Amino acid sequence: MEMLVYLIPISLFLGGLGLAAFFWALRSRQYDDPEGDGQRFLNDDWDDHPKP
């Protein structure tokens, strides 16, 4: 039970850190073009190197 005194603040800190990273990704426009990413994933012409 004493361990919860340490685990609860650590988990809140890590959750806040993850939330801050998510908002940073939103603000730096990491999710700007999800439709284009899906189309590029399905495209077979992504490999520019000739096959032997």
Which percent range fits the helix content?
A: 55-70%
Number of strands: 0
Using the alpha-carbon principal axes, give the shape: elongated
- N- to C-terminal distance: 64 Å
Main sheet record: none
Low-pLDDT runs of 5+ residues are none
Quickly count the helices.
2
Q: Report the β-strand fraction as a percent range.
A: under 5%
Sketch the topology as an H/E string, one letter per element: HH
What does the model show?
The chain is mainly α and 52 residues long. Helix content is 63%, strand content 0%. It is built from two helices and no strands. The chain has helices at residues 4-27, 34-42. The longest helix is centred in the first third of the chain and has 24 residues, at 4-27.
Q: Strands, helices and their partners?
A:
Blueprint: H1 4-27, H2 34-42
Give a quick summary of the entry.
The chain is an all-alpha fold. The protein has two helices and no strands.
Defining key terms:
52 residues, mainly alpha, 2 helices
